[in-house]
Every structure is written in C-alpha cells, then in structure tokens.
Amino acid sequence: MAETTTRAVPPKGFRSAERGWPELHRIPRPPYRLPLLGDLIGASRATPVQDSLRYARRLGPIFRRSAFGKEFVFTWGAELVADLADESRFAKHVGLGIANLRPVAGDGLFTAYNHEPNWQLAHDVLAPGFSREAMAGYHPMMLSVAERLTEHWDLAAAGGRSVDVPGDMTKLTLETIARTGFGHDFGSFERARPHPFVSAMVGTLSHAQRLNSVPGPLAPLLLRRAGRRNVADIALLERIVDGVVRERRASGGGDGDLLDRMLKTAHPESGERLSAENVRRQVITFLVAGHETTSGALSFALHYLSLRPDVAERARAEVDRVWGDVAAPGYEQVAKLRYVRRVLDETLRLWPTAPAFAREAVRDTVLGGVHPMRRGAWTLVLTPMLHRDAGVWGADAEGFDPGRFEVGAVRGRAPHVFKPFGTGARACIGRQFALHEAVLVLGLLLRRYELRADPGYRLRVAERLTLMPEGLRVWLERRG
Ligand code: HEM
C-alpha cells in the first residue's frame, strides 16, 4: 500500500474497523458470531478487558471482536505493539471509553484530540510540574498523607481488624494528588464513606465503560436512567472542582503547585494561558487520572506482597537497610528502593491499571508488514496481554516474579514490551509522580507491618476503564 504522509485524522464519530482495514478478513475473530449482536457469547458487560484477554489467548497477537455492528481490532503481540509505537506512523487514538469521557474532561490533557491546540499548550505549561525538582517538592506532602494512612492502619492492627485495601489506597492517592497538586484537603481519612468526588468519579468512569457495550443509537434509550445519573455526577465533579479553583483564586496563590501553573503560567513561547474552562477540565483530569490508577497499582502490589512472604521479606530487608531507622525517609532514599520498585513494576506488568490504549495510523501504512491500515484506522493495545506474551516473558509469564525487572533482564528485552504508562507523546505525564508515591508508600507499609492475606480470598478484578482488585482485605501486624 502506498504511504501518504498526513496529519492525525480529526474525529468524525466512531470509526468501525471495516473501512480502515482493507484486509480485515485475515484478522482472526471468535467463531460464533450472532447476527446484529456480534461476538457476545461468553462476554460480560462488566468485564470487557478480562473477556478480551480470554479471546486473545485463543485468537493470537491480533484479533477482532464485533458488537452491535461495530468491529474492533485488538493488538497485543510484542512485535506488532513495537510497530505501533512508531510515532512517525501512529498516534494516540481518542476513542471508545476515552471519547466517552469527553463530556466531563473535554479537551483536558488525557481526552484531548491530537489536533486540539489545548493539548500542546497544557502539556508545555504543565510538564515542568512533573520534573525531578517538582517531585522532590511534593515529597514532604506525600509523606504526610502516608502518615495519615498509617495512623488509621495502626488502629486496625491494634484492634485485630482487617483493612479495606482498595478503599484506603483510594483515600491515600486522592489526598496525595489533591494536596500536592491543588492544595486541597478532601478529608478522606476522616470519612466513613468515600468522598462524594470519588463516588461521582466511579460513576462517570463506569458509565463511560458501559456506553461501549450497548448499540450506539439505542444508548440514550437503554441507559436513560444511568445517563441522568451521569449528568448529575458530572455536575457534582464540576461543582467540587469550581470550589477548589475559587478557594485558590481567593487566597491569591499557592506555592507553585499544579493549580498555580494552570492559573498563572504562560506558555514559554506563545505567552498563551489556559482558559478558565480548560482549567476546570484539567483539574478534573488530574484529580481523576492522578489517583485512580495509582490506587489500583498499590492495591494489587499489596495483594501480591500479602500472598508472597518471600517477596515481602526481601523488600522489607531492603527498606530496613536503605532507610535505617530514620523517622521520615528523604526524597533520594525512595529512589534507592530498587527491589520495591521491581515489585511495583511486576505488579503493573500483570495488572496495568490503565489496561489499554488506542493507536491510529496517521497515514496509510502496513502494521507489522502484514496488515494494511488506511489513515485513521485504529487498534486497541491490550496491555495486560502484551505483558504476558510468552515470547517475551517466558512460559511462566502469568507468574509473579519481581526478578524479571533486574537490570540485566530489562536490558536483555526488546524495547516497547512493557507499556503500563502508554507510549509516545501522549504517554502518561504523571509516571514519575505515581512511581515515587507508590514506592514511598510500599516502603513505609513494609517497614511498619507484616501483611497477612485472607486465605479465602481469590483475586477478583473490577473494571471501570481502570482495573482494581475487588473486595481485597488484609490483616496487619505491627512490627517490633
Ligand atoms: C500507576 C499509575 C498510572 C498509570 C498506570 C497510568 C497510565 C496512563 C496511560 C496508559 C496513559 C496513556 C493513555 C492513552 O494513551 O490513551 C496515561 C496518560 C495520562 N496520565 Fe497516567 N497513569 C498513572 C498515573 C498518573 C498520575 C499520578 C497522573 C497525574 C498526576 C496521571 C496523569 C495522566 C495524564 C494527564 C495523561 C494524559 C497525557 C497526555 O495525553 O498528554 N497519570 N496514563
């Protein structure tokens, strides 16, 4: 196919695969396809990612599924994903669940289309807020939020009660991004129930996921009640965020955090600033993107640490050695927890908590030298399967082994085989923030507690665009 160079394609609603993939018939699909409904046998609306993992195992490194007349192509084979990482031929595609979040996040950084000028503007203005220096500045606040968690967990340990891991990790990560980025205190640890911001966020994320599983034209009818609830959830998120911004404007300014950048910083070249409407979109984006995925990553990591005393012991020994008995570890001491970081990487390998990202062809091209794609055609990269490709990770790819992230092992692997934070220009801006926060918190928890798993618990993974272990509780024992 001739390669014609052009810009990313401006969106024109949903693009089904038939038009963009001239040789679609060569891509495997499930055997039993129902007329009109598509490949729905054995599929659940609640677990689209886990269903896709099952299909992937049967159908191979690239496959397609159809639902209600729409055809989707999924890619997970390491070589094909490496090809999709080529930024000269592919770019982020804003589709499916992410496009469904546009009513709440608009042209905020995560949901912006590539051609929207506010993406570059916000990216350039906000990127310095994620520099190493900025991280070191957030560190004391991250520590102080983590101490709120340990006060709460000390009580549970003393009372012989188990803790609600995802619930408490969500409190921790919401408070961390809210206080470091926006100088706002949601008071999560003082509440018996989740903050209304969290409930509204879970509502909008779940709604965005559900919209994919009903026929497009019927969605307004089938999801009428859910749609009304979604409008109310969005209104609540906007009210909360408007309050945060109002507070800041009234106070005259913070200490140079993300919100200060959003409100005051001009683009270094154009001198342009974010509009009030765009600031609102960015605050919602960062409050949501900045806590939900990190909360899941910490929860899955604690699940594995509670199941694997050998791994927990090794990680704890590292913390004791590197931190000694300093009451509050410094910024530099967190980066030195290499084994704890490997535990986190291995967790994100098996359960990348943002489990897919979409790539579209920016010109006519041939994926992996085999599958022709027209400009604008797109595919969903199924990260948990990429991370379980036996050709890269071996026959025991499903097993938990932090040793896979030892320096030598990482160097021995091809690039683009580990992508929990996405790829290219639109990869996660908050990666270092998440990693610093998560390693710090795991270090503090390992140093303070022994974790005991509930022997009856079997991992169940809840999906709401992100992944989260459901119903996970662990028991704690204070260390000497
Ligand atoms: C373990 C935690 C995290 C994971 C697994 C994660 C994963 C991802 C992924 C896969 C993308 C790319 C999505 C795509 O291509 O469509 C992304 C983008 C993004 N993430 Fe994260 N993220 C995490 C933490 C954070 C944090 C802490 C923040 C903010 C403080 C954040 C803010 C963002 C933003 C704003 C984008 C959009 C970037 C752009 O398009 O320019 N994330 N994240």
Question: Which terms would index this structure?
Answer:
five-stranded mixed β-sheet; 11% strand; 49% helix; alpha+beta; 21 helices; 480 residues; three-stranded antiparallel β-sheet; binds protoporphyrin IX containing FE; single chain
State the end-to-end CA separation: 67 Å
Spans where pLDDT lies below 50 across 5 or more residues: 1-6
Computed over alpha carbons, the radius of gyration is: 22 Å
Strand content: 5-15%
Mean pLDDT: 92
Topology:
Blueprint lengths: L16 H4 L27 H12 L2 E6 L2 E6 L2 H7 L5 E3 L3 H5 L1 H4 L11 H10 L5 H27 L4 E2 H18 L13 H15 L8 H4 L1 H28 L6 H7 L11 H14 L2 H16 L1 H15 L7 H5 L2 H13 L5 E6 L3 E3 L3 E3 L4 E5 H4 L3 H4 L13 H5 L19 H18 E5 L7 E4 L1 E4 L3 E6 L2
Parallel strand pairs: 2-8
Antiparallel strand pairs: 1-2, 3-5, 4-12, 5-8, 6-7, 9-12, 10-11
Helix pairs in contact: 7-8, 7-21, 8-13, 8-14, 9-11, 14-17, 14-21, 15-17, 15-21
The chain binds protoporphyrin IX containing FE.
Protoporphyrin IX containing FE (HEM) binds next to helix 13, helix 14 and helix 21.
Summarize the structure in words.
The chain has helices spanning 17-20, 48-59, 78-84, 96-100, 102-105, 117-126, 132-158, 165-182, 196-210, 219-222, 224-251, 258-264, 276-289, 292-307, 309-323, 331-335, 338-350, 383-386, 390-393, 407-411, 431-448, and strands spanning 62-67, 70-75, 90-92, 163-164, 356-361, 365-367, 371-373, 378-382, 449-453, 461-464, 466-469, 473-478. The chain is an alpha+beta fold and 480 residues long. Strands 1-2-8-5-3 form a five-stranded mixed beta sheet. The chain has a three-stranded antiparallel beta sheet with strand order 4-12-9. The chain has a two-stranded antiparallel sheet with strand order 6-7. Helix 8 packs antiparallel against helix 13 (276-289), helix 8 (165-182) packs across helix 14 and helix 14 packs across helix 17 (338-350). The longest helix has 28 residues, at 224-251. It is globular, with a radius of gyration of 22 Å. Protoporphyrin IX containing FE is lined by residues 92, 98, 109-110, 123, 177, 285-286, 289-290, 293-294, 297, 352-354, 357, 420-422, 426-430, 433-434.
